[in-house]
Each structure stands twice: as structure tokens, then as C-alpha cells.
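Homework help board

Subject: predicted structure for assignment chain

Our instructor gave us this sequence and asked us to write out the predicted structure in C-alpha cell form, then describe one feature. I got the C-alpha cells but I'm not sure how to describe them. Can anyone check?
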Amino acid sequence: MNIPIIIVFAVLAICFIIRMPISFSMLTASIAYFLVTDITKLGQVFTVITGNMFANYTMLAAPLFIFMANVLNESKVTEKMFAFCNGMLGRLKGGSGLVNVMISLIFSGMTGSAIADASGIGVMEIEQMKKEGYDTEFSCAITAASATIGPIFPPSIPMVIYAMLSGASVGKLFMGGVVPGILLAVVLLVYTGIISQKRNYPSGIVMTKRQFLKATISAFPALLTVLILLGGIYTGVCTPTEAGAVASAYALLISYFIYHTLGWQELKRVIKKSAANTATLALLCGTSMLFSYIVSREQVPAAVARLVTGVTDNKYIFLLIVNIVFLLLGCVLDVSTIQLVFIPMVLPLVNAFGIDLVHFGVIICFNMMIGLSTPPFGMLLFIVTGLGKAKISGVIREILPMVIIMIALLFVLTYCPDLVMALPNHSK
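My C-alpha cell output:
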């Protein structure tokens, strides 16, 4: 590597150490690069890159999903989901723990964000479990672990960003996340059931048939949001971007006309929050594309390719190396950093080894979500610890077995690609 690219990574490392936000870190490193090469090109390159980004039809899906998630959060739809899940699983041993996982699966089909899941319904889940006698640390741990389902099961904002970076189909990525998302929910349900039996955790809320029917009817309009999204994409009736627009409009309609929980004041908050979230995402994507341009210009991916192929020419060993490296990165870096800085470096190798971009995208997304729950810097750990007022050491102790289970499932998905590709290969 030459001097300019060494300076870029040195500046980036310093920015990470001082905890500068990732978007400003990449922008600072990029400016440092052009200062030592040709500063007059910075404005021209950034204008072209950001122009291409905003002209990218795929990227329109992200703000639509953000808007839909904010509408559903603001309109208290989560309470309908919570009652419905309690009716299904509440009567079982450890019912509230099982509900915690199930509502994350359903809610992820509406928001596509682990942070939205944990912070949106996390308080409700943790408080209910603590009230029924569950250990506080376990309540927080299962809330964090189940929240990772969000960006795996469609829709998924990280998958939209991966599609922008790789050129993979957003629709196929979404379909590829369905089976892994359901499998993750199943293994967490089984684990929760076993722990509940072992620790003699109580059953949850037990509803009569009449109460369950009422809860189901109340939740049904919200549940249709998932069907609109997945059905539209899977059948080919609409693109993921169009499905996001339709689902957003539908969320507005049911919140206002059916649930009567979204007035003008709430809508203004939704618009303001969605605009702020979208601006943050746009800044992230713009600076990451500028950084990727520099990395590509300096042929860093080619250097990484030579390094890896010098170690192995077997794609299965390559996938093992990538998973291990990304798992280790997930312990110390946030998802945005991993996705925007490191994925562009390995994509040429993915193509060289003939690995399907959709399969790779799903397993990398799964990998990054594990990082959100992995000590020492997993963001979900800090969110749920704050929500539950628990000790971080206790939450880490409780979540480690769940992280091990998720890692085992990750490797199953890595080496059994048919589990990921079954739906994408049959979608239109």
C-alpha cells in the first residue's frame, strides 16, 4: 500500500478511537486522502457519487421502511401485537419469554430494525417479565437476542444498504432472510422454553377463547402489513420500494381510521423523526461511497484478494475466514462501520469464488446482527441494560449461550445455502 491509503486508514483508526460517528470518520479520512493527492477532485467526485446515490431507485426503499416503522411505533400498534402474542403463547411455561421472541418476529416484519425492536417494545417486554418473576438479566438478554431477528426477517434496512454496495437484488435478499429469520426465532423459542422449565418460570397471561378472538381481530389489520410487504415482493406484483410505499400508506390508514391512535401531532413527530433518520442514513451512504471510491482507486480489494488467495483457494474456507473475521469485528465495531468499510473490500473475492451475492448478503447480515448482542460493545446490550436497569455483567452472562446458538445457526446457513436460497430461487 502507498502513502495516501496508509494515511486514510490511519485517520480512520484515530476517528474510531475518539468515537467520532462513522459517517464523519469516513468523510474525514476521505478529505485527508484528497489533501495528499489532489484536493481539487474532492468536490467533483463527491457530487458525482452522491448524485448517483440519490438517483438509485433501490435506496428509496430505506426511507419508506423507516417511515413505516415510525408510524407503527407512534400509533401504539405494538400493544395490539403484544396482546395477540400473549393469546397464542401466554398459557405455556415461560409464556412471557416466548411472547418476547414471537413479537420480535412479527414486529420485525414491519420495521426491519433491531434497535427499533429493542427500544420500541423492549420496555413492555422486560417490565412484563420482571413483574412475573423472571430474572432481570435474563429478561434483558432474551429481549436483545430476539431483537436481532429484525434486520434478518424482511424488510431489512441493512440489506437495502448491502444491495446498494453489491448490486444484489433487494427483493431476493428479503426473500433470503425469511427462512433464517424464522429459524432464529425457533431456536430462541426452544432455548427460552428449556430455561423456563429449568428455572421454573411461570406461565404468562392466560386468555379465554373470547379474549383471544378479540385480540386477534384487533391485531389483524396490523398483521396484514407483513402480508402486503412479503406478498407483493414474492409474487412480483411490486418491487421492494413499491411495497414499502404501499405498506407505509397502509400503516397510515389503519393507524388513523382503524386504531385512531395517529393524530396530526403524532404525524408531525413521525415526519420529523423519519426525516432525521433518513438524513443520517443518506450521510452514511454518501460518505461510504466516497470512501469506497478511494479504496477501489487504490486497489485495496485487489490487495485483500491476493492476501486471501495466498492463504486458500477454497470458497468454503474463505467463508469460514470471513465469518470469523466479521464476528470478531462485531465485538468491537458497530454494524455501520462493518458494512460500509469492510464489505466493499471482500465483494471482489465473493465474485471471484462464485458465491451467490444474495446468500453472502444474508449470512453477513446475520453475522452483523450477532455483533449487536456480542460483548463488549454490542449496542443492544447497552439498550436493554438501560431499559431493564440491570447489571451489564449479568446480562452478558445470560446472553452468551444465546450468542453461541446464533453463531451455530450462522454456520449452518453458511454451509447449507439452500436454506437461504429456497425462496429467492422461486420468487418472481
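Reply (TA_rk): Your C-alpha cells look well-formed. For the description, you could write something like this. Residues 264-297 form the longest helix (34 residues). That's the kind of observation they're looking for.
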